[in-house]
């Protein structure tokens, strides 16, 4: 699908379709987000995506809390007519003081651009879409790199991401019946359990007082925290465990050292960010990029896209631990929004904003 | 003025104020855009702005036309309570095939972010604001670096930028009675003349068939084209002429070689773009950055902000040609939008968009 504004030469209006979170969620319910994410990952592995350097503006607010804006442009599928073509941007801002005020830490808007005129054509609430992208990536990694069979999953961190992951687990892994959970704030874990119950999701929620305890309770561990300090050692993880290291700073270096296999979404994105543990280990040569080896040192097998295109074999955990470390690619948000927009256009969702107003 | 979202903890809504072009224009009519631009230029000269590297996504459309999206983040005034604090972004996209379809080449939206939560707080039509910024910069440069007295002005290029410049000339330079104009498309020059007449702007419009002829017709030359090929030589310009080189590729290198004085908005921005003539000349050492000299070679005097803060003397044209070469700074858009928003908030303009919709 190619995004094109409806031409209206007679009146020379310029419109932008606005999709609030409710509209995004409604439209997303009609698509298969894991299939969309896998399409984009395959396109990315084939070099048919663009991920320009992101714009980054940091500041401190009056409480001294870290605030930032990130503008992430991306395109999918330009060179291949079999893949949907989409150009867009995710604008995602965050303040570390937001959760204490009852707000999600991060929020923003995502755009699609008209392929022909380059005009912004769609603007959508970004946080739900971003969480859906993240969760869908986890589901895909579990499908291809997780244990063959599992019925229990551990979620460390019980915020917004945990909810999206729970919804997707119910949809894509119907065998799962138990969620082991931990949050630094026990009341957040309780609120999550109540939300699961109220939403009639098919899970028993088991709260754990310590993260390590939760990690040891199942063979599928998904980290969804905001920590910048590692806390999980290899000893906390059972043999045969798959770790979706979504929050990127939960695993201590030793877990990477001893991993049975390690997969990423994009080696360069990870290398470019030495503030995250795997980027630092890559920079230090303690973990190696695909294609290089050194005895006793872990080499990244490849990307999930490489697995999906069969360029790299999938290795599921048996006696060791398999780690997936996705840095997060805006191109997945853009690809998902393109599908959400197609659904919105078909079903008549969203609000048309007239950019010019009475000024013609 | 500091941008802050209205807290609504009880309902947990998240709002974004949408300002279409008509609203932006109405609000802008209530402010002094040249004063705002000069405030921001002084802040920039004092190092109280941030201009991160911009995000840039280029592609070709189905006609093979060049398309691009630029995401330009910027902040003003963080470190000084006497200057309005604002954080924001301009998202400005363009396709070279747009004008042939009756659309402005470039368009997009600009944002302000809430200082405390980092959430996008205001989204506004960007093209008018961008043109206003550009025109206001030209007015400021004319005020400080132009001829002491002038009653005629030359506009080369008769598109949207020419209209904004004409409106601002009428407001800030009431002595001007004649506009000499040229456009590659004579019908665009005629349409501009009709627009001036219909809008009762106090100008006689004199169309010229050749750009060089128009340039020679007055001592204030403003280039507002989309050319990427220089066409003005020193011989086309009268002694005592001020050139606002807004479109950045109209002057041939010899004009810079022989300039009486040369001013810019930001030396690094210009140096970083060797696709524009002055960036290329700087890279080649044919024009020198402030603080360096070589006999027979032009040195950039400084920025307009340096002139406004009296760090660098203002030199008006007498026997030679003074050139202003503004690359264009998103931080001016952000500063202008902050003032426009204050006016919108005071007068109740704009539409509140609920980002979450029914999803709470």
TrEMBL record, chains A, B:
A cellular component term, taken from the record's GO annotations: cytoplasm
One Pfam family cited in the UniProt record for this chain: OCD_Mu_crystall
Name of the protein described by the UniProt record: Alanine dehydrogenase
Organism lineage string: Bacteria, Bacillati, Actinomycetota, Actinomycetes, Kitasatosporales
């Amino acid at each position: 699908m190619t995004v094109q504004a409806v031409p209206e030469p007679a009146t020379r209006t310029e419109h932008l379709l606005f999709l609030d979170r409710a509209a995004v969620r409604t439209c997303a319910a009609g698509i298969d987000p894991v299939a969309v994410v896998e399409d984009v990952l395959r396109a990315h592995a084939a070099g048919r995506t663009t991920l320009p350097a992101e714009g980054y503006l940091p500041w401190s607010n009056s409480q001294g809390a870290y605030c930032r804006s990130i503008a992430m442009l991306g395109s999918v599928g330009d060179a291949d007519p079999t893949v949907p073509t989409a150009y867009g941007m995710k604008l995602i801002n965050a303040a570390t003081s937001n959760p204490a005020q009852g707000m999600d830490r991060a929020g923003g808007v995502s755009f699609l651009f008209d392929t022909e005129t380059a005009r912004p054509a769609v603007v959508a609430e970004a946080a739900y879409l971003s969480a859906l992208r993240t969760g869908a990536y986890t589901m895909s990694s579990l499908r291809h790199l997780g244990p063959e069979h599992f019925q229990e999953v551990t979620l460390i961190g019980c915020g917004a991401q945990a909810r999206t992951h729970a919804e997707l687990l119910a949809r894509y892994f119907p065998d799962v019946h138990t969620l082991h959970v931990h949050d630094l704030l026990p009341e957040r874990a309780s609120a999550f359990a109540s939300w699961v119950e109220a939403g009639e999701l098919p899970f028993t929620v088991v709260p754990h007082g310590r993260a390590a305890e939760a990690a040891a309770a199942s063979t599928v561990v998904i980290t969804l925290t905001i920590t910048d300090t590692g806390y999980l050692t290899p000893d906390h993880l059972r043999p045969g465990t798959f770790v979706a290291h979504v929050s990127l700073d939960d695993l201590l270096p030793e877990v990477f050292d001893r991993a049975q296999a390690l997969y990423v979404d994009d080696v360069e994105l990870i290398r470019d960010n030495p503030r995250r543990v795997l980027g630092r280990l890559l920079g230090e040569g303690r973990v190696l990029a695909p294609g290089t080896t050194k005895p006793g040192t872990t080499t990244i097998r490849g990307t999930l896209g490489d697995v999906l295109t069969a360029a790299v074999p999938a290795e599921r955990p048996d006696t060791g631990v398999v780690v997936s470390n996705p840095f997060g690619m805006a191109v997945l948000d853009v690809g998902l929004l393109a599908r959400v927009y197609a659904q919105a256009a078909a079903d008549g969702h969203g609000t048309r904003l007239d950019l010019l107003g009475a000024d013609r």
